[in-house]
Amino acid sequence: MKGIARFTKKGELQSKIDRKNEEIDILKIGLSGIAKRCGYKNVQEFYRTYHKSHGAYIAYKEQVAEWDKTYGDDNQKQNKESVLERLKNPPKKTADYQKQKTDRVKERGAR
Q: Which of 28, 54, 1, 12 minimizes the C-alpha distance to 36?
């Protein structure tokens, strides 16, 4: 009796395995059909194209990160001074220009 029960159980499991394999085959055919409807010869061609585009996308993201690091909003904000700070601390060129201008005025007044 035990041998018959094992044989029956094994047969049931084998039939489940066979059904699942059939489902897998049907799904593979469906996947191939999806790729063909989208214009690819087969699934392998789709994956080749996908991996190329994914590599290009990763390179693009790296370039964007580099650009943001160099020119992004955070970088621009750090370099800007407020108007009040610029009025309190005029650039050296402006201070030199103002000094030259006052020296000229003094020279003209002395003449």
A: 28
The three state secondary structure string of the chain is CHHHHHHHHHHHHHHHHHHHHHHHHHHHHHHHHHHHHCCCCCHHHHHHHHHHHHHHHHHHHHHHHHHHHHHCHHHHHHHCCCHHHHHHCCCHHHHHHHHHHHHHHHHHHHC
The reported pLDDT for the residue numbered 4 is 67
Q: How far apart, in whole angstroms, are the C-alpha atoms of residue 25 and residue 41?
A: 18
CA distance 91 to 78: 17
**Is 73 found in the same domain as 95?**
no
Domain that holds residue 73: 41-80
Q: For the full predicted model, state whether its pTM sits above 0.70.
A: no
The answer on 65 and 51 residing in a single domain is yes
Q: Are residues 24 and 35 in the same domain?
A: yes
Yes or no: say if 43 and 35 are a contact pair by the CB < 8 Å rule.
Answer: yes
